[in-house]
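anyone else get weird line breaks when pasting these?? whatever heres mine. first is seq + tokens for prot A
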Amino acid sequence: MAKINGIPTSKDFRKHIGRTGISAKFKQADQFIDAILAVLQNAEYWRGINTVNAIRPLRMVRMACIQWMMNNQNGTRAARPKIRDLCDAVHLRITTLIEANYHTTKDDHETKKWKGAMASVHDQIRLRRGGGVGRSLDSHYFVERGTSSHYAKPSATQAQAKYNIARRNGTGLSLEDWIEQVLVPQSEEDPFNVYFDNMGTVNGMHLQSLKTKRVKYCSPEERGAYQLTIRNGIVRDASGSPYHTGSKETAFSGPGWAIYVVDFDGNFYSESHIVDEFHHSSFLSGAPVQAAGEIAVNEGRVVAITNKTGHYKAGPRELKRALQLLAQYGVNLGAVATNDPFRAKDKWFSGLDAFYADGDLASLGDGRMLKPARIPA
């Protein structure tokens, strides 16, 4: 057969599997083989082309081969090893093209290392500005912050584990390129792991998350839409209207609540929590925060506040800082129900008690306030 990079022409492969001449008359029609021959013909020109444009037509051949395998999982079919060999050759060519065209060079690695180091330096500067109060993004969300796509944690965790295997096997791709160019296509082409044996694929739920669920990271201009101003105890949104969380919602506390963060200039930002799309990390693009949690506000009046955030794991000091700033802005802490779901679950105290306890609600014993009623929409 006249092969290029181990890939035959459609005409030659038809002969190879006995789909020409007399032998073809005795073979049962097979729509999946017909599909392989059709996409192989479309890909013939691209077998020797070294650009990214060759990847898509070759992927169509690989997908057609996998489709045949999915529908002919009985290993006794005579065509099976021949189609497997074709799939192997096409897969090798695709891998070679991807590695050549998306390979992360030493300079790229150094640039990313420098950017990572600079981000770390800026993080440390922000934390020092907080006088030891404040939290960096938890390490479990590294992939979310470390890629420009900001993949959501459930799918990113599985992708990271598979990427680590690929790195050990010699891939020169960045995590993001590997996800976009290798993991997602292979998962789409082989959802039941007929060919890839689960080494490069993810399950359907996580695949959809990788493709469609991206955590929003706000630019400085975008975050302005979520910034609150607090004067004389009244909280106002970016439009100047009294802030109201009745129409907002969080995954943890439900309707009537919103998430919030405080930057190192003492600015509050707040919005609804949308799982895998808008988190505490969204406001400041994954940068450290001075405080974070959930908040309930009724027509501009702060009703309740907590330090509930999985992204930043805020502690007593961060809770106290949020209360301290609210007091500075004229909020009556005595009327603000305060909770720490990590250390004093289901126990509510006044913001004033919480402040004088340095945010350590576990030290206050039994709760002294009722959980606030849901803020009306």
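and prot B, same format (seq, then tokens)
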Amino acid sequence: MIDETADIDANKLFIPALAPLYRALAPYSYAFIRILMGLVFLPSGIDKMFMGGYARIAEGNIKMLGLAYPYAWAWAVAAVEFFGAILIILGLFTRGAAFAMVVMLTVITFGVQARAGYLWASRGFEVGLLLELMFIAICFGGGGRFSLDRKIGREF
């Protein structure tokens, strides 16, 4: 096990007095990022699953992509965003849930948002790409030390 706190050298910090705080919080940083990534997608998943958002994306982006069975794809997106977010927050089946998010975000980023260019201000793909890269990192990192995957002793 890597000790994240061993790398914190107070002499190299701009504010050396913060070293104890960094040492105390460093072990939780990966879990914090993983949980926040799940929380970013949970509201969207709730909207699509329970508030009719699936119909909006079926009639909009999915039809624009030319995919057959747009409502089936919309429900798949809703399920990935809702259940995937919950699994990532819990750190359960983390790699699989993150991989599903990567696939979904690849289609959204390069199939929908890339048409508007790179800049987010013009509804471009920079934020989608950032989120996708974060989920790729979670695919490699798994659930981490504070996850249900670690608790059950298995990672998917």
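btw re prot B: The chain has a mean pLDDT of 92. Residues 37-152 form one domain.
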